Amino acid sequence: MTITLGRLKENAYYLRGRGALEISIVYGAILLAFVTAALVSPAEFPFLNENNLSGVLSQSIPVLGILAIGAGVLMIAGEFDLSIGAVIGLSAVVFIRTANEYGWPIAFVAAVASAVAIAVVNGLIVVLTGIPSFIATLGMAFFWTGASIFVNGLTPAVFAPGVRTDTLVSLFAGDYGYFRSQIVWLLLIGVAAWFLLHRHRLGNKIYAVGGNVAAAKAVSIKPNVVKLQAFAFMGLMTGTASVLIAVRTSGMQPATTEEYTLLAIAAAVVGSCSLTGGKGTIFGMIVGAALIRTIENGLIIGKAPGFYVQLFVGVSIVIAAVFNKLMEGKAT
Questions:
Q1: How far is CA 87 from the centre of its chain?
Q2: Are 78 and 210 in contact (CB under 8 A)?
Q3: From its phi and psi, is residue 49 left (phi > 0), alpha (psi between -120 and 50) or beta?
Q4: Domain 49-329, CATH
Q5: Ranges assigned E (strand) in 165-274
Q6: In tens digits, what is the pLDDT along the chain, a chain of 332 residues?
Q7: Between β-strands 251-252 and 157-158, what pairing exists: parallel, antiparallel or unpaired?
Q8: Helices 20-40 and 282-301, interaxial angle, to 10°?
Q9: Taking the model in full, what pTM does it have?
């Protein structure tokens, strides 16, 4: 019992030092307010409606959460990827067109492999040239968007008849009442990413490289190799998210997924990932994604004007960045 309490205290201190505990408390308070409003006035604020929980929240939070995990791990390594949205579009096009020819299992591998390959190319440009990653990946975002249009044209890529089978839908977008299968994907990926970042030596290297490159080199860590691994991980998350999006929407229009880039980075920042690297948790990244999507959902079902969503995301990034700066002092 004493050991368990000690571990809980240690974990709470660990999360607090990285800001994840505080942002979780904020999210819990907002969630409590939304639930209370839904219970008081279910007709005016149908937050607890089955269609809202299953059709909106359990689909939108997992996709953004998976992307936030990829973007957050890369940020901890000290790099950014501004081509996330473009890669989602190209990877989804690869998935749909490959599925139409060879079936969805091969298409899934092809989509994820293409996203990982693209991320590694982005990473090689960064580590070999020394160009800041936000410049290199911003330029490559335009390139990959153009590539998706070159491959597919301006018309949407859609599944051929009989390709989007019940098995495919159940696996990647299945409806199970109050939740969808995307939640299961987020849980599985979240647990695996937690062990990788917080319990594997690769995670230690990522924190070391993002926190102090010179110190990392002094203990024989190769920063360029670690950063390439972080880029590859970002590609793995992007490829998986692109398949979830393609199966849910039944198609993909190239150049329509750019918003995911800033939303993924915003979720990681709101979840207490440091903009200067070396700080962040998987738990915080997921909570950051949940916070953004939940408030966005609350604004929509509360019939707030559409621009309120952009206003909220923008203000949240600034407040989270200031908050992270304050927390860095407490973590040392």
A1: 13
A2: yes
A3: beta
A4: 1.10.3470
A5: 251-252
A6: 555 555 555 555 555 555 677 788 888 888 899 999 999 988 889 988 888 887 777 888 999 999 999 999 999 999 999 999 999 999 999 999 999 999 999 999 999 999 999 999 999 999 999 999 999 999 999 999 999 999 888 889 999 998 999 999 999 988 887 788 999 999 999 999 999 999 999 999 999 999 999 999 998 899 999 999 999 999 999 999 999 999 999 989 888 898 899 899 989 988 888 888 888 999 999 999 998 899 888 888 888 777 777 787 777 777 777 776 676 665 55
A7: antiparallel
A8: 30
A9: 0.90
Which amino acid would we find at residue 141? A
Which residues are within 8 A (CB) of 227 and not within 5 positions of it... i.e. 6 or more apart?
77, 78, 79, 123, 126, 127, 209
Q: Whole-angstrom Cα distance, residue 15 to residue 310?
A: 28
Domain boundaries, the chain: 49-329
